[in-house]
Each structure stands twice: as structure tokens, then as C-alpha cells.
Design a protein that fits this description.
The complex is a heterotetramer, with two copies of chain A (279 residues) and two copies of chain B (332 residues). Chain A is of the alpha/beta class and 279 residues long. Chain A is built from eight helices and 14 strands. Chain A has a single domain, classed as Glutaconate Coenzyme A-transferase (3-Layer(aba) Sandwich), CATH 3.40.1080. The longest helix of chain A has 12 residues. Chain B has 332 residues and is of the alpha/beta class. Chain B has two domains: 211 residues, Glutaconate Coenzyme A-transferase, CATH 3.40.1080.10; 34 residues, no CATH class. Chain B is built from twelve helices and 14 strands. In chain B, strands 1, 2, 4, 6, 10, 11, 12, 13 and 14 form a nine-stranded mixed β-sheet that branches. Chain B has a three-stranded antiparallel β-sheet with strand order 7-9-8, with helices on one face. A two-stranded parallel ribbon of chain B has the order 3-5. The longest helix of chain B has 15 residues. Chain B is globular and about 60 Å long. The N and C termini of chain B lie far apart (52 Å). The chains are: A alpha/beta (279), B alpha/beta (332). The interface between A and B is large, with 71 and 79 residues.
């Protein structure tokens, strides 16, 4: 279990995300790094992990490779159940998803996420400064999965006191029972994984709390890159770097084409890598 | 409250006097598009992101030209990209007035430069929902209901940017969202298999195609493979969309390409990027030349979708088919 | 086309019911005589008739014989679409059923039907004098099919001024827009077929109106057997008796075991006739 | 307002801490019934009239004995008949407190004398709905919603005999009914095919089985045929009920007999009538002897459902199988 010397920021996110997932639980997997992390978990400590994808696949073995879309053909082969979007979200709204695993562009200290727009809401809603893709299924997962795991690249502007638009509700304003009172289900954000560390949400205040900083970071450096005041767990510690084997699995077995995990050293054209010839 | 497609009562009325008989609905794509889509329509778009999107239909729509369309979908990629790109080049020929959506981008293939271009310049009305919201809105429409309850949009800003009404549940007292039904004027759907009456088999994700088709006043279906009614009714539980909901059936192999279609072909990411290049230039303030060249070569100067597909190297098409056959191995 | 001399009351109902059905229309078929009538229509003037059954079959050719349940295996073979109850009723609520074809135990002059209970409602609801099977799908068909066709055995107590329980709404109290105002869809009862004749519902008053009396009946005899005042169409006329061929088709081709159409002459044990050996 | 099974929040909570893993759920019928059903439960009954009803499960429930059950279904025949007959003979051993239903009878096979006996004597609480109402209530439960809108019960007396609430639609202003979700404590379901994890394939009508299973806190499934997970996942779109919703899987050939089960056997109308004979006598004020003889012979003196099936002449069983194979001819 030698520690990797050349892992990337995305790779440590993937490893951290995989470790948060528990064996034999149902995880509703959003697009992007959550797919890579779920596959790594399934191939390591959580072979009984049951992935659900919003386009309708329940429990696929994912043995034909990494899906590059949550509606990818690769999510359906060998699945236990295949429906459409309504079926997947109804199942989730019912309570079958232990975890929801989503990424977002902006996050606040209560784990609310923005993936809709950068700009002035509501006044500038129809003329956003930057138009992001929109919720997709993220706000539904945030509303109905029992616990959510969030991935957000760490950046002072992206870890912000006030979101420009709340796409996916987290702990809302952090007040006791806020989610229940709003009609939401589930316990809300459970872990957040950034490019700098792993966070939970403190029980009482529901505020984001640093529990592990990644190698090369300190409590101070993480706080310095965060646009709000972080809580810090009493036993906050450095997260172990990915092992060489974990990095090898990501690069060679799971995402050999760099669909979501970009290669650090040599410049690779992502689009060429995603084409069919390389599959 | 206004309805952007048909109101629930109008949607009902649209079916009452319609000929719903089991008749031959085969026609050309050109006939289908000109007969069933008109300016100002709310068009429900099938598929999911770049999976089984009705690409061939959007090409024909671009050639035809339409004004002031409302487009409705959950998550889409190339289908609205093609329509939006046409609007970027010439809004007098093709224009989108409004979109109702959850997501417009390409997952692993990045953002949509067309969406950024139109949205950031305020060129279309946007109504944001979630994937479940839009799916449930089509479902309500397909059920003949004016609304359907969901938890999805509670607690964030989505209720402030759309027509959801949040009420206190009369049974539990807790808040619950009511989403207004979506009943588009016309649905555009691509499937793997159909018979001449419009019974459709869908492989892989059903997406929200059945709901959109049932909710809409009219439905245009393209299919990879047209088969006999006798074959399709040997396995009636495979039928995802019944003929009663379909008005036009067109056999169009590769009809969702360069997106993917289960059992037929995987994504052509190269082409998606090539198509995006011109729009990205315009997004950065550049000239429309690259995008215009793309549209001229691939859409305006082709008469049919077969001509579009014929522009791809045979080796590439076969490679994309082989990639998909690895995804779901089976005997021919 | 020789007129039959020995047809039964059920057989003329079946023939009359079949004739009301139009070719190429979608008919949501309730259990019992509506199934026999739909099959007769399909085998005579309406080969393009599209039957829908509430258990989920859409458009079966019914070429493996008469179903004896609306969830019968015979309704699924060769169907164009097969779902469950929600799928069938959602399709109907959407507006796909041109006709709903149902039977009931009691009817009033506005075509409202009772198939729930004989007794005092609401006071005696939990202790009915006679407990009937309940709505099944009849009230849903009444609420959402575009037009309904009703079959009720003619009897003064069953054609009643006031129903003991309204299971399936017809024209309600007959007032203009009553169905729309109640939130119902469709135009409501279109024809009623009894053991004595065929009725429509007069445009303005929505009251039951005799349009054809069966051979052997007169306007007066039908009125005498009816517990409310009937309207009579100006051109009310005698209905032609079933032809020998129609009766032969019912007895030999469509319901050879007498599942729903009882044999007149010889006493037959219906249950034995329904068993598998005879199929 | 009271919930007769689980409230929506309780139904949610029931799943949160449940082991939903893909594990071997095979057990005996006796184990399943004693482990997952308890006195006072709301039991959701699968199938439709006499099609694919969970007959074997009801026999085991009768042998076990239960008190004060609430039974919920859309249209049912023999399954509640067996439970109700046991109550007619000995309410101290088996009792039904309440039923929520659309229909309890036998279509071509006539009325249910058990229903008439219990209802006309006021021995159980009745809540009348329609087939769509009950189906939609289970659907709401399976969707994790507190209610679902329908048009079904509007305009008649059904809203006066059940817990529907009629509101003015906030979008159209027209009346619409809201039906409270049904979340039974336990679902009892018979299917054609299952794997050991509980993935189920249903042939012919899906009835409302998936909805009942997904809505309930626990689900017992019997199947005609237990197959490998590898086989069932070769055609995942055939799976009607996913394993996540199932707690017990028992292979019980003829598990819906003397009712019908598509691809396996058609109705045994003779036996349905024979079973009814004793209850009809009691309905007319006669003695329980005939009914008691039936229960002793067919249920109490058999240890398993196999023993029940073994009481039928082989020729009759084969005839009923052949009748069904005529209904859906296919190669073995």
C-alpha cells in the first residue's frame, strides 16, 4: 500500500469519495466524479454497493466500463431494473436511496449547492452572467436521498457565504428541523469532498466542518481558500494520500480515457479520448 | 397562471376528436415535420442528454425553419444545440422563444456553448426545473391531470424561478410542491423499434419518452428499425409507447447520432466537439463563420438525414456501432 | 339475414351493444356482457375496434377467445401494449377512450349507476341490506371515458328515481355543465341498453329517452317497467331482432361456454362450463 | 385524518434503516408469513380479481392466524375469500377489521358470499374506492408522496364513503380529488418469476403489484419459477418489481391456483364454486359445516401449499395448464 507520489486533485477526490461510500448501501450516482468514485468503491471495499442512475438503471454491475453519462448504455447492462427518469426518482422519493452523490459549482456553509447560474437572482435570472447547465437531477437527489455526498472544487469564490442561486437544498439556513419544515426528506448533506479536504456538517449548527485536510494542506490553508468561516473538528487530521494501487485502478481500470479524471502530466484531448475507437 | 403548451382541458379536447385508429402512420421526415409542427408550438423533446435524442428530427426542423418555439425537456444536449445553433445564425429563419428544462449540457462532453450564448444574451425565456420535475410534469400531462405533487423543488430557488405552487399537504400538514402538467403541442422522439402504427420499443433508459408522447397533442417518432406489427405484438410488454399516442413513424437509422442509442451506436464525441467549436467562438464574441460552415455542410446542403450520416467515414460509424455492441453484447 | 326466433334477453343486449360501437374507435370494456358485445362488434361491422381492458391490455385482437375477466390472459395475447391498472386508467384519464362500456345494478334517469350497495346510505353504509361488489373500474370509466354505454337489466326497482348509492356518475342531476363543474371529463352516458330497449339521454335535460324498444315491448310496457318518467324520442321505433347469424356467432363462436350469455333452453351449470377442460 | 397502514413519514422511516442489500431472501412460506406479518397490520393484496392473487400466502396466513387485519387491494376474489372464510368460521383465530377496496367478487364466477356475509352483518369496516383510486393510492405510496390527484371519485358517493379530499385545482380552478397514499405494512404478491434477491418478472397484467410492493414496509413474494440472477438480468426491462422492494422470496408453483396465472394455468372455476358453496349456505343462515369441512380438508389439514395442490386430480391440473398454453401459445 505505497502512497502515490503523483496523484492529481481529482484522483484524491475520487479516492475520498469512494471511502465515504459504505458496502451494501444504495447510492444514487450523479454524473462526473461521483461515477468514478462509485466504481472505485465497488471494485475495492464495497462490492455490494448498489448504484442507481437517474435515467433508470438500478443495481448494474458496471462491468462493461465507466459510464460517461448517467443514461449511458453501460449503466443498463446487467442491471436489476431498468425504467426511465420517473421510475428512478419515484424510488428515491420513496426512500430507497441511502446516499445521493452529486457535484456542484458553488456551495455555502450549510451544504446548499448552486449549479444553475452565476449572476443576480432573481433580477438577472433571464440574463445570467454565466449560465450553468441547471439542476439536472441534483435538486431531486438533495430533496429525497437519505444523505448526500457533495463534490465541489475548492475555491474561495465557490465556497461562498451566500449562493447566487440555490439549486440543490442542503441544510438550508441550518436551523433545527429546517429540512423537515420545508417538506424535504432525508438528513441532508453528510460529507463534502473538495480539492482540499473532507468535511462533515456539525450536528447542532449544520455548519460545514473540516474533518480531513488533504496532504499539502493545513487547517489554515483550507480556511484561507474558503469564503466563509469553517468549523474544524477537534480531531481534524490529514487524509492519507491515495495509494499507488488506487491511482493505478483509476487510471488504468476505471477511467482509462480520462472521461472525468483528467491526466496531470501530458496534455490529452479529452474529446478524442471519449470517442468510440478507444473503448 | 398560463399554460405554455396546451392547458389540461385543451389537451383532453385535442384527443377527443382525433382519429386514434390503428392505421399506417409511415411518412417522410419532411412530411412529419411540416404536418405536425407549427410556429409557436411547445415541442417536447425526447431522450436524455445525448442518449436517444431526436437528432434527425431537429435537423429537419432546422431546414424547415420555425418561429417562437417553446422547447420542453428534462436533460438535453445535441437536440436543442442544433435548434439553438440555427437561431444563433439566423433568428429570422429559426427562433426559440422559451425553454422549460432541468439541464442543458453534455456531461463528459462539457457545457453547451449554444445555451450560454442565448441565455447570457437574454435571447430566450428560461424556466428552470429539475429532472424529476420535468419528468413528473410530462407524467401529469400523460395522466390527464392538471398537476402532480413532488418533493423535488422544495427548499431552494427553483420554486422562485418556475410555476410550482407549494401548498400545505391537506393530509399531513407538511409543505409539498404541486407542479403544473406539461402538455406539449408536439413530441419529438427517437426509439430503437417501431411498427407502422407507432407501437414503440425502447432499449435502455425509457427517459421520459412515453410520458412526453402521451402528454402531447401529436407525436413524431423516428426509429432505428421498423418492424412488423406481428413481431412487435409477440412481446407486447416490450412496447414502451403504444400506437394510440403516435401520429408519424419514420425509419431513420442513426437518428440520434452523433449521440448514442442503446444496441445501435455509442457517442461520437469528436463530432460533438467539432459542432460546438463554432458556437464557442461566437460565445467568445467571435464571428459566426465556423458555425455557419458547419450548418451549411451538414444540414442546409443535405436534403435528408441519410446525407448527413453519409458524411461520416464508414470506419467511424462501424467503430461507434462496435463500441455499443461491447456495451450490450448479444447475438445478432 | 333471417331474424332469430329463439334469442334471449341477454343476446339482444349483446347485439344492441355491438351495434352502438363504432369501427376504429377505442372502447374501454368492462366485465360481463360488454366483453361479449365488443367481440361481436369486432367480428362484424367493427374489425378496427380497439378494446382496452382495465387490467392493462390495449388493442388485443381477442383471437384466443372470450376473456372471462378483464385481467384474463386472453386480453394480453397480441395486444399492442400491456401494463397494469394505473397505466390503463391514466391512458383513459388522458382522453384516449372514445367509449366506456359498463354495466350496473341500478340506474336513475340521468344515467348514474349503483354497483356498491342496496341499503341506506350513508346511515347504513357499514351494514348494507345487500352488498354488491363495488365500483371496480366503473366509476373511473364513468369519470374519464369520452362517452359511456351502460347495460342494466330492466326492472322497475332497478330503474329508480333515486339511487341508494351513486357509484358511477352519469349526468349527475342533469343540470347544464354538471359534469364539468364536478371536475369530470367526457360527455357522460351516451346510450343505455336494457332488457327492454335502447335509450339515449336527451340533449337539454340529460334525461333518459327511449329510442328503440325491443320486439315484444311497446313504449307503454317499457315505461310501466321503469321507476321514473321516461322521455320518448319522436321517432322511437322497434329494434330489429338479432339475426340467426348473430345469435349463432354469440352461441358458437364468441361465448360457447355461456360464461356471460346464459343458455335459454337447457339448464347449464355455468361453473362447469367455465372450467378449463372446455376451453 | 388517520393512516390505516403507515403514514407517509412512517413509510419513509421504515426504509431508512432497513437492510436493502442484494442478499439471498429465500425462505419457507411459513417463515415469511410469521416473520413479516403481525396482528393489526395493513396487508396490501396483489393480483387482480382471480388473476395472480397470492393464494398460497393467504392459506399460510389462515393456518398461522391473525387478528384485526386491514386488507387493501383494488379488485380481488379468492385471496380475501380465503381470509374472510376463516373469519366466518372462527373470528378468534382469524379476523379482518377493515377493508379498503374497489371490488370484491369474481366477475364470471359471481359474487363473493364471504363479502356478503361479513358486510351485511357489519362485521368489518368498509372503505369503498375505485380500481383507479386504489391503484393510484398504492402508486402515491410507492412514490413517497402523501397523496395523488385523480378524477376518478368525483361526482358520485365514493367521496362520501372514503378519505378523499376534493379541492379546487390551484392551476385550473376545477375540482380535483386528492387521494391519500396507501402504505401497507406488508405486501403479499404472487409473480411468475423471481430471483433469490427478489427481482420479479410479471407476465400479463402487472395489476398494481409493483406499486403495492414499493409502497409497503415489507413484501412477501411467491413465484411460479425461481431463476438465477444471471438469467433475470439478461432482460432487466422485464423486471417489474426490483429486489429493493422485496423481503422474502418463496418458490410456490400454482401459488395463485385455483385462480389463473398467465403462462402457467387458467382458472379452475369448479373449485372456486365448490369453495363458495359453504359460505353461500352460511350467507343464507345455514350452518358452517360445509365451509368448515372445506377449510379442514384443504387448509388446516395440509401443512403446505404443495399438499393443497396435491389434492387436485393430475388430469385437472394438466388441463388447466393446457388451457393457459392455448391462451399464449409459445415454444417450451
Amino acid at each position: 500500500m505505497t502512497a502515490s507520489k503523483d496523484y492529481t486533485a481529482q484522483e484524491i477526490i475520487v479516492v475520498a469519495g469512494a471511502k465515504v461510500l459504505e458496502d451494501n448501501k444504495i447510492v444514487f450516482v450523479g454524473t462526473g466524479l461521483p461515477m468514478v468514485a462509485s466504481l472505485l468503491a465497488k471494485q475495492t471495499h464495497a462490492p455490494g454497493l448498489i448504484p442507481v442512475f437517474e435515467a433508470g438503471a438500478v443495481g448494474p454491475p458496471l462491468n462493461v466500463g465507466l459510464p460517461i453519462s448517467v443514461g449511458d448504455s453501460k449503466t443498463f447492462t446487467g442491471a436489476s431494473f431498468v425504467g426511465g427518469l420517473n421510475a428512478a426518482f419515484e424510488l428515491t422519493q420513496r426512500g430507497f436511496a441511502d446516499f445521493g452523490f452529486i457535484s456542484g459549482a458553488e456551495v455555502d456553509k450549510y451544504g446548499n449547492l448552486n449549479s444553475t447560474m452565476i449572476g443576480d437572482f432573481p433580477a438577472g435570472y433571464q440574463t445570467p452572467k454565466v449560465r450553468l447547465p441547471g439542476s439536472g437531477g441534483a435538486s431531486d437527489m438533495a430533496a429525497s436521498c437519505e444523505r448526500t455526498i457533495l463534490i465541489v472544487p475548492h475555491d474561495k469564490r465557490k465556497f461562498t457565504e451566500k449562493l447566487q442561486y440555490v439549486t440543490s437544498p442542503g441544510h438550508l439556513d441550518g436551523s433545527p428541523g429546517a429540512r423537515f419544515d420545508a417538506g424535504l426528506q432525508g438528513k441532508g448533506p453528510y460529507r463534502l469532498i473538495s480539492t482540499k479536504g473532507i468535511f462533515d456538517f456539525e450536528e447542532e449548527s449544520k455548519r460545514m466542518r473540516l474533518i480531513h485536510y488533504f496532504p499539502g494542506e493545513t487547517i489554515e490553508s483550507v480556511q484561507a481558500a474558503t469564503g466563509f468561516e469553517l468549523l474544524v473538528a477537534p480531531d481534524a487530521s490529514e487524509f492519507a494520500p491515495p495509494t499507488e494501487e488506487e491511482v493505478r485502478m483509476i487510471r488504468e481500470d476505471i477511467d482509462p480515457n480520462g472521461a472525468f479524471v483528467k491526466r496531470a502530466k501530458k496534455k490529452v484531448n479529452k474529446n478524442i479520448n471519449l470517442t468510440a475507437q478507444q473503448m | 397562471m398560463y399554460w405554455t403548451g396546451l392547458s389540461p382541458d385543451e389537451a383532453r379536447e385535442a384527443l377527443v376528436n382525433k382519429d386514434k385508429s390503428m392505421k399506417d402512420k409511415r411518412m417522410t421526415l419532411k412530411e412529419a415535420v411540416s404536418q405536425f409542427i407549427k410556429d409557436g408550438d411547445n415541442v417536447g423533446v425526447g431522450g436524455f442528454v445525448n442518449i436517444r435524442q431526436p437528432i434527425a428530427i431537429t435537423h429537419e426542423m432546422v431546414r424547415h425553419g420555425f418561429k417562437d418555439l417553446t422547447l420542453s425537456w428534462q436533460s438535453a444536449g445535441m437536440a436543442p444545440d442544433y435548434l439553438a445553433g440555427a437561431m444563433m445564425l439566423n433568428p429570422d429563419h429559426f427562433s426559440i422563444k422559451r425553454i422549460e428544462l432541468a439541464y442543458w449540457a453534455h456531461e463528459a462532453f462539457g457545457l453547451s456553448p449554444m445555451f450560454r450564448f442565448l441565455a447570457e444574451r437574454g435571447m430566450l425565456e428560461i424556466e428552470d426545473w429539475s429532472n424529476y420535475n420535468m419528468s413528473a410534469r410530462f407524467k401529469a400531462g400523460s395522466m390527464g391531470l392538471p398537476f402532480i405533487p413532488t418533493r423535488g423543488p422544495l427548499g431552494g430557488d427553483i420554486p422562485s424561478s418556475c410555476r410550482t405552487k407549494i401548498i400545505d399537504c391537506p393530509f399531513t400538514g407538511r409543505p409539498i410542491a404541486l407542479l403544473p402538467a406539461s402538455n406539449p403541442d408536439v413530441a419529438i422522439i427517437h426509439v430503437q423499434v417501431a411498427d407502422q402504427y407507432g407501437n414503440c420499443i425502447i432499449r435502455g433508459t425509457d427517459a421520459t419518452c412515453a410520458e412526453i408522447a402521451m402528454a402531447s397533442a401529436h407525436t413524431i417518432v423516428t426509429c432505428e428499425q421498423l418492424v412488423s406489427h406481428e413481431l412487435i405484438t409477440q412481446t407486447p410488454k416490450d412496447v414502451g409507447i403504444p400506437f394510440v399516442a403516435v401520429d408519424a413513424v419514420v425509419e431513420v437509422p442513426f437518428g440520434a447520432y452523433p449521440g448514442a442509442c442503446r444496441r445501435h451506436y455509442y457517442f461520437n464525441g469528436d463530432h460533438i466537439s467539432a459542432f460546438h467549436a463554432g458556437a464557442t467562438e461566437m460565445c467568445k464574441g467571435g464571428a459566426p463563420d465556423t458555425l455557419k460552415t458547419y450548418y451549411d455542410e451538414y444540414i442546409y446542403n443535405t436534403k435528408t438525414f441519410e446525407d448527413f450520416i453519409a458524411k461520416f467515414p464508414v470506419k467511424k460509424l462501424i467503430a461507434d456501432q462496435k463500441a455499443e455492441s461491447f456495451n450490450c453484447e448479444r447475438l445478432a
